[in-house]
Amino acid sequence: MTPFDLRLYGLVDPARNNGRPLADLAREAVQGGATLIQLRVKDTVTRSFVEEARAVHAALRGTGVPLIINDRVDVALAVSAGGVHLGQDDMDPRDARLQLGPNAVIGQTVKSQAHADAVSVGAVDYVGIGGVFETLSKENPDPPVGVEGLRALCARVRARRAGLPVCAIAGIGEDRIAPVIGAGADGIAVISAIFMADDPQGAARRLRAAVDAALAERNRT
Predict the structure, then answer these.
(1) Which CATH architecture has domain 8-220?
(2) Measured on CA atoms in the order 121, 123, 129, 130, is the torsion positive or negative?
(3) Which of 10, 126, 197, 217 has its CA 20 to 30 A from that of 210?
(4) pTM for the full predicted model
């Protein structure tokens, strides 16, 4: 499997980029310490998605940071991306594994106990839990799970597969990193906190430092 690190997972999205090229933003985030990049493009034609994915993939070449494609297994295949992140209405992770092969990184969204109980633990490499807090980056009909909900879902997922990596997503800034890491997350997935910042590289650097500090504190206790 392609090595991956969930500590600081940056989600680049043309709806949350302040008009800047996604490839440039992805590169700046990695220079600041982002450890994984996802391209999330909604409501666009496939050809445009593939072109954007190729540009972001090229920007990450040589960094050692994989590109994960949101939702679209076909786009991930077209650009030889590092993997795919699947929501509950997307392709079953087991089918995605058959398409992408053993080396791809496959993530799955978990929003509820029912989702946690149904995670395809043999096919996924990590889960993203949330939204933990409210977010402006997407419409979400489900209420935020909160820190205690995150804690419960982490435990439920890991009861099915010990040590399965978990990232927390939605509404997470520097002040919320310690609580979500303390609740069991191995990292955070962010959009606005990096990519809407005036200085994405600096924002990523501060977030990465806060994640590393929270993980070190958790390991001491």
Answers:
(1) Alpha-Beta Barrel (3.20)
(2) negative
(3) 126
(4) 0.96
